[in-house]
Amino acid sequence: MAQTGPQLDTASLARYLNASMLQDLELSNNDIIEYVKLLHHYLQKNRTQQKEEVVDECAGYCQGEIYQWLKAYNNIHGYVSLLICIFGTIANILNIMVLTRKEMAKAPINKILKWLAVADMFVMLEYIPFTCYQYIYMKPGEKDFSYGWAVYVLVHMHFTQILHTISIGLTVTLAVWRYVAIRHPNGSCANFLLSHSREAILFPFIISPILCFPTYFVFKVQKSYAKDSPVPLYHVDADKNTILYRFNFWIHSVIIKLLPCCILTIISFVLMRVLCEASRRRLKLKDYDAPEKYAIQLNEGKSKRPPRCDRRNDRTTLLLVAVLVLFLITEFPQGLLGLLSGMLEKCFFAHCYPPFGEIMDLLALINAAIGFVLYGLMSKQFRTTFKSLFFKRHFGSTEMTRLTRVTTTCV
């Protein structure tokens, strides 16, 4: 906050009043020093009142029981996030190893999932030293104002934001790719994507640093001094009164967060509708092709299962829908908080956004770590490849050939 009053202290005022002024006023040096002390005390009290007025200006923001719960969680956030990061790092390494196998790497969707795992792995690897020092090594309420730590926090903020934006871009690419593969499997758009799969994967890695460009100039290492202390204190902060500061919030919340969430919401609904339509279409075809045989099977308590390719197609679509829904749960609250920070400006960001910071980090880490569990639960090919890779089980050539053939034709 800018100080409107003059920056006066005892030494500067004593130098300002020269010897002739002291003689004209017929005052002693002790009287002048006492007067300067009283004036200095008055100026300090005036600045304190101005700060209290600013605090009162933001009074009433973000109060309630939910913030007490958030503060209670913040005390254990370091240990929870560390466990998730360790598990997520190992899980994503396993994902990369499985998805790079020959029988898995043929599918373009698996290539996207592989690079998504790479981005998530680096996010969690970088977060481990940060959470160990910030939340475990340092005591609650303790802060490090050294220059080295301020630089590390700034690098951590930019690095994680870029990689997380890459993950968002790959998730959107994954959803669009699956939508085209289902709605227009033999169209010109599908053929174009197949012939430019590398460019589609590379595009999020190029565009993400560009979208994060305003952040590089908004947040900087700031230097300040504590009262009655010559030691400088360093911290990461931004000038909240600039247009670039507000513009950065709009870019981060609308373009990076909310716009992908809207796209993924629409695609998720389309994919779910395609699943329902495919199920109804298979039932109609079965009834049309062999109504008498199908009726006998129903009377005998038997059901004709859909072809293996169709079942695998549905499982793949369900897997991607689960990935997209988890992404929406993680990213939409962050985008909404960022949008409110841009609209309501300093009071909301100063009092409402920070308590949710650890929860937002937790959701992002869970989203980055849960992929291995989803793939294992919903993809039979992933489970089969994982077992053949790590448990050294012997799978016949017929089984692996079938998996490879299904991958190239159905996924």
From TrEMBL:
Alphabetically ordered keywords of this record: Membrane, Receptor, Transmembrane, Transmembrane helix
Q: What is its main location?
A: membrane
Highest taxon listed in the record's lineage: Eukaryota
Instruction: List, alphabetically, the Pfam families matched.
Output: 7TM_GPCR_Srw
Location(s) in or outside the cell:
Membrane
Membrane-spanning intervals of the chain:
79-100, 112-137, 149-180, 201-219, 249-276, 318-339, 359-378
A single GO cellular-component term from the record reads: plasma membrane
Gene3D superfamilies recorded for this chain? Rhodopsin 7-helix transmembrane proteins (1.20.1070.10)
- Signal peptide, first to last residue: none
Note the InterPro entries from the entry: 7TM_GPCR_serpentine_rcpt_Srw, GPCR_Dmsr-1, GPCR_Rhodpsn, GPCR_Rhodpsn_7TM
Asked whether the keyword Isomerase is assigned, the reply is no
Q: Which GO terms describe its molecular function?
A: G protein-coupled peptide receptor activity
Enumerate the CDD domains for this protein. Answer: 7tmA_FMRFamide_R-like
Instruction: Give the matching SUPFAM superfamilies.
Output: Family A G protein-coupled receptor-like (SSF81321)
Query: Which family does the similarity line name?
Result: Belongs to the G-protein coupled receptor 1 family.
Q: What is this protein called?
A: Probable G-protein coupled receptor 139
